[in-house]
Amino acid sequence: MKRIGTRCLGALRQDAQLRFGVIGLAILLLLCLLAPVLATVDPYYYGPDSLAAPGVSGHLLGTNHLGQDVFSMLVYGVRTSLMVAIVSSMLSGIIGVVIGGIGGYFGGKVDVVISEIINIFLMIPVFFLIMLIVSLFGSDIKNVMIVIGITNWSKNAKLMRAQALSLRERTFVKSAIALGETKMQVLFKYILPNGIFPVVANTTRGMAGAILTEASLSFLGLGDPNVISWGQMIYQGKQYITTAWWISAFSGIAVIITVIIFYMLGDGLNHVLNPKYNQGGNK
Amino acid sequence: MKRFIVRRIISGILTVLVVFTLNFALVKSAPGDPITSLMGKETDDPVLREALMEKWGLDQPVPVQYFNYLKNALTGDLGTSIIYNRPVNDMIGERMMATILLGLTSLIIAFVLGTLLGIFCARRDGSILDNTLSTISYATDAMPSFWLGLMLIILFATKLDIFPSQGMYNVRAGYTGLQYVLDVLYHLALPCITLVLITMSGYFRITKSSILQVTNEDFITTMRATGMSERKIFNKYIFRNAILPTVTMLGISIAFLVTGVSLIEIVFSWPGIGSMTLTAINQRDYPTLMGVYLVMNVSVVVVMIITDVLYAILDPRIRYD
Q: Which of A100, A185, A237, B310 has a Cα at 20 to 30 A from B248?
């Protein structure tokens, strides 16, 4: 356990992007926890001043058309964004790992079918599919997260398949098979844990993608009206863009910062976990 | 080569078929009954219901409906919009040009600018310009495109009043001829700038990294050792090898042109496929939605196949895979 700790610290020291990403994620998590303390007003409270400019009557970043405090909404929006990011990318990660792992490990006909399915999903315009599903089945935030998850696994599956293809030729896997372990045991005990690293990095980047997708859906009016989300704030602000720019402007900046944090985490993890980068020294 | 093309085409047809079936299954399994929403809440006349069921072919068993829809789609008939009672084909046809105009213009500008800047920065890796551009590209990559569009509207349309914020042409002026063309270009400016800023970073990064990668290959070192001029090495060997990933990316962007443009169309009320899709979503006009999705998917598949074949011609390593 101690060794893992030192290795993590070493990785953090080595890679600046990972360091920024981890610090950023820590701040986001803190914001999640401390939202009720940090928010100056209840974000669901419809105050008397609507469309107040930033700074006017104690509203740090102004208010929207219903008199809700923009700053407090931003703080609460972190929760929605992180939830969407984590749930949907976990889902796509798990589906991708299992499908890709099975394809790469079993090979033969199974692999032909699975790679064809992966290729098909790589060619589908995913955003429109998500849009169609959400508009048909309702824009509840749970639906949105599940739909983003089950439509974005193809890249993960592709990465995992390539890993499984090369891992199954390795000696330790072959010896496990020779020792009589079942195929499922080999797959879940040796192939998946050893091949999962590129998927982890890609999934982290996928979290950024999920946040952007949720924002885009909300911008189309397909967001869950019962939760506070940054995409929806941009959408609401669109109508008042000429008079009350702050509603859209600040929520967009919040999206950008969060997405950059996940990009940094993903790229950093990729540098640390990918042996190609490690050999050439420190990048 | 022939086998490669045939395989790609078969896989393309399969993709379209899967999407088609998915489409059908989704709409069929969705909650709510289209006939009820067509009739409205006030009436519940069984005769009217039956007539409507028959008109839209909903009285048939589901597999029959599926094959009817498939048969129609194969002959190029995407059905009729529930809301406008017009063929979906016509509606898409009318809007297609606007989307292609916006999408293709910005794609070409982004491709040329991004690639040039990528080449420029790869040769000056680590310079101030390179660092600045790399940072900017990281930020634009993280930016929701529609948000950037809104911000540009605030800056250029509201505050500075240089460009119009909405539409494709001045409806009131009724220009014709050259004046009309200029007017459309004037309206094109802001949406086009938004798209270029968003998509350029991809070309910039991929060009830069692939040039840097090729430059570090052994065969380039060998050529340097033989004393070949830097310029010749770059033009003849580095550039031609490094441009391949950029070509792939261009192909993918052309394939996903409509998808990428649609959010921007909505921001700027550009009368293209994207804004039509939004209206269809809001009105729950499923035949239109399905039609748009199908057309988009077929075009994605076709362009992807063309790109793959072109790529295989450019790079023999792919063919022998």
A: A100
Q: What is the interface pTM, i.e. ipTM, of the complex?
A: 0.83
CB contact under 8 A, B267 and A260: no
B116 and B260 co-located in one domain = yes
Interface subset of B 221-260, CB within 8 angstroms of A: 256, 258-259
Residue A240 contacts B where some CB pair is shorter than 8 Å = no
Start-to-end C-alpha separation, chain B: 11
For A62-120, the pLDDT digits (tens) are 777 777 777 888 888 888 889 999 999 999 999 999 999 899 888 888 888 998 888 88
* Domain assignment of residue B263, given as a range: 93-280
**CA-based end-to-end distance of chain A:** 26
Do B124 and B195 fall into the same domain?
A: yes
A249 touches chain B (CB under 8 A): yes
Q: Is the pTM of this model over 0.90?
A: no
Query: Which domain CATH number covers A79?
Result: 1.10.3720.10
> Which residue type is seen at B292?
V
Task: Decide if A132 and B289 are in contact by the 8 Å CB cutoff.
Answer: yes
Q: How far apart are CA B277 and CA B262, in angstroms?
A: 8
- Could you tell me where the beta strands, DSSP code E, fall in B8-60? none
Identify the DSSP state of B163.
S
CATH of residue B247's domain is 1.10.3720.10
In sequence order, which residues have a C-beta less than 8 Å from that of residue A102 and are 6 or more positions away? A110, A114, A187
> Are B27 and B148 found together in one domain?
no
Q: Which two tokens stand for residue A239?
A: 């109508």
Quick one: which H or E segment has residue A7? helix A2-14
Q: How far apart are CA B81 and CA B280, in angstroms?
A: 9
- Chain B: nearest CA to A271, how far in angstroms? 15
At CA A222, angle to CA A241 and CA B26, rounded to 5? 155
Q: Are residues B199 and B288 in the same domain?
A: no
User: Over the stretch A16-29, which tens digit does the pLDDT of each residue have?
Assistant: 888 888 899 999 89
Judgement on whether residues B184 and B267 belong to the same structural domain of the protein: yes
Provide the domain count of chain B. 2
Is B88 inside any structural domain? Answer: no
Angle at A55 between CA A51 and CA A61, to 5 degrees: 65
Query: Environment class of residue A192 by beta-carbon count within 10 Å: exposed (0-12), middle (13-18) or buried (19+)?
Result: buried
